[in-house]
Write a structure and sequence with these properties.
The complex is a heterodimer of chains A (about 650) and B (about 525). Chain A has about 650 residues and is mostly helical. Chain A has 26 helices and 3 strands. Chain B contains 23 helices and 5 strands. The chains are: A mainly alpha (about 650), B mainly alpha (about 525).
């Protein structure tokens, strides 16, 4: 005992000095004044909504959904005011720390709860509250006839509160509360219709896969405390950049990555996301596309100093991102369920972000930028999918769609903007964010830029194919509807949020991308883009290549899914298609490696515990109490004889004592 | 080492429920009156306990406060000596909070009896629960080793009758098994207690903890004594492989008994490890650490796997406790301030958490008439509010961040990592298994299609005569059940966000205990971190 402590304590690099205040790459956090001091309302308002709706029960059925929506917008207003106040300060004075209360103090482990309002967290706050509130509005329409509508809005509010806590927390421990809080909301919403056992299973799967990731996050925090004596961002990140042991940083980085993989559905913990589509579609849009699943990217970017001190961990982040972006893209090509195809796409797009986050300062800003534009266009497309489902009796099989552009004009148009954005067609949003990631991936020396750059490039081509396939199969080509559907456009409550998100898909990138607004905004947190870093392929060539691949992918999809007739039942397909339909056998692998052995282990332990352990322990007990046959006589059920026995025992003991003394 | 108190607070706290028990048992009247009287006495006890707690000084330099000492059997060195440190105080308060909750939850445990003297069983049941409360206070407050032993064994009597007379179908078997396991541990401890006295300074107060702390014992003797005490505590705690009495006892006893048994009485095991094993035998504790930590981690994983495999709800809950006790023991034998504080807080939080699991599960069992998980399914659609609180209890059981159990579990892990990194990492994987045992149970009980033939009362009222045919109406939470649930859920939230309410009381006691250990093991680093400024 204590040997590890001693060995490490003697190594000077492992000792660290206490850094006062929050040190980002350049700035320090300031005390909160004015409206910023009320940033805690961001979390408190939606939390209040969740509490009122859940505790109030049926009494809140009538006004609950509207109240929840209003509180979500309230959080957006607070966010916007804090953002404006932030713009009023110089770039180096924008980060503000808000101390709330002393949370945990045990021995050297002291954590106070506080918020960190800086450019990175505010970017998320605006995304979460704006898209989140739009989706609340959409849900008023989408869930109109659901008898459990109140519970749905309570969970949505709970989610928004937890997600805001996640991004605003000023320590890893408080982040953890938001982190599992969003996991809980996700669990509750995936299983919202859990009278269907498959949906209940999907909810469990999501929570457990996330827990595997949280195992990593827990260990990362444990190692942090061991190494730095603290778990707040100020100390940990401040010291990770100055004097930290690389081995420890690698361990922390890899464990954080495991956490990120769980939350962001990255390889190898990706299997839950497709099943998570069991949740109502607004949930898929908000939680499983725009916000929660991107939390892993936030974690990696927030922990930048740790990853920069651990090149190995950084490399693994890039590898995970590359594998996932291709994995998701391949799966996306084979799915006929519109939501599952979108889910695969989400996985793939987050792979892009993760890859960018692993590239270091050349990638951070673009990881977050893509996260932002993706939040708009993917949420928009999910809402579009929901609108389609609404018009099509909740069907999701794209093979029974087709030609919907006429019946649902707004849905078609808004979806089209999202489609153009994700393809990366200039000047739509995705072009500005994704092309930058492709460029960044081609920066570097040796084999890396070629491998990772090509992965992103090929991914872009496949993305163009599967997204065009999805778009054409749904909105164009021949109508393959079942007889009982009468597609119609959705109501205003649903179409207005779709239109707003479509505007974002179209113009957000153009406004804050080429103007440099976004990169300069984030610079105080993520550091400046290194000078003189050029891709191994000249940028214009790269851009042209990307566009050619995208055009090729889209054209191929046009040939097969618009011009040619789409079969109503899926053709057998080649081996790759079959594998992709089954998510590249992810569930089969998990079942064979984890579930079945686990079930056998549990069953045999239950058996052994009853026979072996209990038997042995029972034998021991019998030895003390007499032979087992006498035992049976003792168990005569008469309390008085038990009492007599015990009395005799006590007398004997006291007698023995007296003799000894 | 003990600050004496002018008012015998601890004796009063212990005496109130005992007086209550006698009145409940012997004052004639209806069962309903007896129950109300019992509840009243437990509430008075709680109030007195809280008042006593306000007399506790967190900054005191002595180990024990609110002390009382009277010579009892001076020939044997036995004194009636009470006193509490922060650890004992929070455990006593936890017991005092849980008792009225359990009494209220037990309101309908004994079927109504008719005829003269018909309230006999009800009265006995509630009186026994109050007697148990007295012993719970005594066992945590005893600062005399022999007095502790007396309470330790005396607790068995009410529990034995509570299980054996007011339990399920196999109650006799379970009660006897409980008694034999406990007696086996207790008798071995008794030998160690006497041997310890003989090793000590002797005299008329030779059993006082403070007189027996810091003895310079021969290593072999110290180890033997350690083993004697530890075995009893490991059975009580319960640790694998001495855990098999618990699932039987918990499933066969009434929910209130199970709650007090697992939530409070079992804590005597882990409390004893801190108070006696570590404080009196520090070097032997260090010597035994590898084995104890291995058993602790084994308990964490084994208990969790067994919980996953259970089909009986009550057995499942008791196996989760085996897993949780593994965490507590790991924190204790990590020998760091953080791990210790975490283990102590864990004991408190686990009390509330396990109470919620047992009592809320019992609400389901009462409605369905079965403890078997496969007999349920789809109950969220029949009793949504009950499903909600059941889920909250489950989330507390799986240590969801934001709830109290997370803080303590994380403190144990973060505090164990510096000295027991491998054990801490393995134990951390327990959080995945915890998600499995809780969520699988929730899924099987609450989700899925609505159970056939059952309908919520509200929906039942809406149906007309023909619609009701063949349907049984099931009530959602009653007012009494809501009152049972509310304080437990409040405890999860309050101690989740303000754990310092308890930690501020616990921390000084942890420092005291570890300073005793450090005297014997100078190279101990209880800070458990590499960073400057926090290590000593």
């Amino acid at each position: 005992m204590g040997t590890l402590v001693q060995t490490l304590a003697s190594s000077p690099s492992a000792l660290s000095t206490y850094a006062a205040g929050f040190a980002t790459h350049e700035g320090e956090a300031h005390a909160a004044t004015g409206v910023t001091a009320y940033a805690w309302l961001l979390v408190a308002l939606p939390l209040l909504g969740a509490a009122v709706l859940l505790v109030g029960g049926r009494r809140t059925d009538k006004f609950g959904p509207v109240l929840a929506t209003a509180l979500s917008w309230g959080a957006f207003v607070v966010g916007a005011l804090v953002f404006l106040a932030m713009l009023g300060r110089g770039p180096e004075d924008r980060a503000v720390g808000i101390d709330l209360f002393d949370w945990v103090a045990a021995g050297a482990f002291k954590v106070s709860a506080g918020l960190l309002v800086d450019q990175l967290s505010m970017t998320f706050v605006l995304l979460i509250t704006f898209v989140g509130s739009l989706i609340h509005v959409y849900s008023l329409g989408y869930m109109e006839h659901d008898p459990d509508k109140r519970r749905f809005f309570a969970y949505l509010n709970l989610f928004v509160a937890a997600m805001l806590l996640l991004v605003l927390a000023n320590s890893y421990l408080l982040l953890y509360v938001g982190w599992e809080g969003v996991g809980l909301a996700s669990y509750l919403l995936i299983g919202f219709w859990n009278w269907n056992p498959a949906y209940a299973t999907a909810a469990n799967k999501a929570f457990v896969a996330n827990r595997v990731g949280d195992f990593g996050l827990s260990i990362a925090i444990m190692v942090m405390f061991f190494h730095f004596g603290a778990v707040d961002f100020a100390t940990v990140l401040g010291e990770a950049g100055t004097n930290a042991n690389q081995g420890f940083m690698t361990a922390i980085g890899l464990m954080l990555l495991l956490g990120a993989c769980g939350k962001s559905a990255q390889f190898p913990l990706q299997s839950w996301l497709g099943d998570a589509m069991a949740g109502p579609t607004p949930v898929s849009a908000l939680i499983h596309a725009a916000t929660m699943v991107t939390a892993g990217v936030y974690l990696v970017v927030r922990s930048a100093p740790i990853f920069e001190a651990a090149p190995t961990a950084q490399l693994v982040v890039v590898i995970v991102g590359a594998i996932t972006l291709l994995f998701g893209a391949i799966v996306g090509c084979a799915k006929d369920d519109i939501k599952k195809a979108l889910a695969a796409s989400t996985m793939s797009q987050i792979g892009y972000m993760m890859l960018a986050a692993g590239l270091g300062p050349v990638g951070y800003a673009f990881a977050i930028f893509h996260l932002l534009t993706h939040g708009f266009f993917k949420a928009g497309m999910f809402l579009g999918a929901g609108s389609v489902m609404h018009g099509m009796n909740d069907q999701v099989d794209m093979r029974r769609f087709g030609g919907l552009s006429g019946a649902m004009k707004i849905t078609w148009a808004t979806f089209a903007l999202g489609w153009l954005a994700i393809l990366g067609v200039p000047p739509f949003s995705g072009f500005w964010s994704k092309d930058k990631i492709i460029e960044a991936a081609f920066i570097g020396e040796g084999w890396r830029p070629w491998v990772f750059g090509l992965a992103t490039l090929i991914g872009a081509g496949i993305t163009a194919f599967y997204m065009s396939r999805l778009f054409f199969m749904t909105f164009h080509g021949k109508k393959r509807w079942t007889d009982d559907v009468h597609p119609h456009e959705s109501g205003k409550l649903m179409t207005v949020p779709m239109m707003v998100l479509a505007l974002g898909s179209a113009f957000l990138g153009l406004i804050i991308g080429p103007t440099g607004l976004f990169t300069s905004w984030l610079e105080p947190v993520t550091g400046a883009e290194p000078e003189g870093a050029h891709p191994v392929i000249p940028v214009p060539v790269l851009m042209a290549l990307t566009l050619v691949l995208v055009a090729g992918g889209a054209a191929f999809a046009w040939l097969r899914y618009w011009r040619d007739e789409v079969a109503v039942t899926a053709p057998a397909g080649n081996l790759l298609t079959q594998a992709a339909r089954k998510d590249l056998y992810q569930d089969q692998v998990n079942e064979a490696l984890l579930m079945r052995p686990g079930i056998h282990l549990t069953r045999s332990l239950v058996f052994a515990d009853g026979k072996g352990v209990d038997g042995a322990a029972g034998g021991l007990a019998a030895l003390v109490g007499g032979t087992s046959s006498r035992l049976r006589k003792l168990q005569n059920g008469f309390a008085r004889s038990y009492a007599l026995t015990m009395l005799a025992g006590v007398v004997a003991i006291l007698g023995a004592l007296w003799v000894i003394s | 080492m003990t600050t004496m108190s002018s008012v015998p607070w601890l004796t009063i706290v212990g005496l109130v429920p005992l007086v209550g028990a006698l009145l409940v048992a012997f004052v004639p009247g209806s069962a309903e009156n007896a129950k109300r009287m019992a509840l009243g006495f437990s509430l008075v006890t709680l109030v007195v306990g809280v008042v006593a707690a306000t007399q506790f000084d967190r900054g005191a330099s002595t180990q024990f406060q609110l002390g009382e000492q009277h010579s009892w059997i001076p020939q044997f060195g036995v004194s009636y000596s009470l006193g509490v440190d922060g650890i004992a105080l929070v455990l006593i308060l936890m017991a005092l909070v849980l008792t009225p909750i359990c009494l209220l939850a037990a309101w309908r445990d004994v079927p109504e009896e008719v005829g003269p003297g018909g309230a006999r069983r009800t009265k006995t049941y509630f009186a026994l629960l109050l007697v148990l409360e007295t012993f719970m206070v005594g066992v945590f407050a005893a600062t005399d080793v022999f007095l502790f032993y007396v309470f330790f064994e005396a607790m068995l009597i009410p529990v034995y009758f509570l299980i054996g007379r007011f339990g399920g179908a196999r109650r006799q078997y379970a009660a006897m098994k409980f008694l034999l396991f406990s007696l086996a541990g207790g008798l071995i401890m008794l030998v160690a207690v006497i041997a310890l006295y003989l090793q000590g300074p002797g005299g008329s107060d030779g059993f006082l903890i403070e007189r027996l702390t810091g003895l310079s014992l021969d290593p072999t003797t110290e180890r033997l004594l350690f083993v004697g005490f530890f075995f009893a505590f490991a059975v009580k705690a319960p640790m694998v492989p001495f855990h098999t009495w618990l699932p039987d006892a918990a499933t066969e006893s009434s929910p209130a008994t199970a709650t007090l048994l697992v939530g409070v009485l079992d804590k005597v095991g882990t409390f004893g490890m801190i108070r006696f094993c570590l404080q009196l035998f520090p070097q032997a504790s260090e010597w035994a650490t590898p084995v104890v930590v291995a058993l602790a981690v084994l308990s964490v994983i084994y208990g969790a796997l067994l919980a996953i495999g259970q089909t009986d709800m009550m057995r499942l809950v008791s196996y989760t406790s085996v897993s949780h006790f593994g965490f507590i023991v790991l924190g204790i034998f990590a020998f760091t301030n953080v791990g210790h504080a975490g283990a102590n807080l864990y004991m408190v939080n686990h009390g509330f958490s396990t109470a919620a699991l047992f009592l809320f599960a019992a609400m389901l069992v009462r409605r369905r008439g079965s403890k078997r998980i496969p007999d349920f399914g789809g109950w969220q659609r029949v009793t949504p509010a009950l499903a909600g609180i059941f889920l909250v209890a489950g989330l507390s059981g799986l240590a969801l961040p934001g709830l109290s159990s997370f803080v303590s579990e994380f403190l144990v892990l973060v505090g164990s990592f510096p000295t027991q990194p491998v054990a801490a990492v393995i134990a951390t994987s327990g959080i995945i298994l915890a998600a499995l045992y809780i969520l699988l149970m929730y899924k099987k009980v609450m989700t899925g299609p609505k159970p056939e033939g059952l309908v919520g009362v509200r929906e039942h009222d809406r149906l007309d005569e023909s619609g009701r045919r063949g349907l049984t109406a099931v009530r959602d939470l009653t007012t009494r059940e809501k009152i049972v649930a509310a304080p437990l859920i409040a405890a999860f939230l309050v101690l989740g966000f303000l754990p310092n309410l308890a930690l501020d009381v616990i921390n000084p006691a942890v420092d005291q205990t570890l300073s005793h250990v450090q005297k014997a093991i100078p190279n101990l680093n209880p800070a458990g971190t590499l960073a400057e400024g926090s290590s000593k």
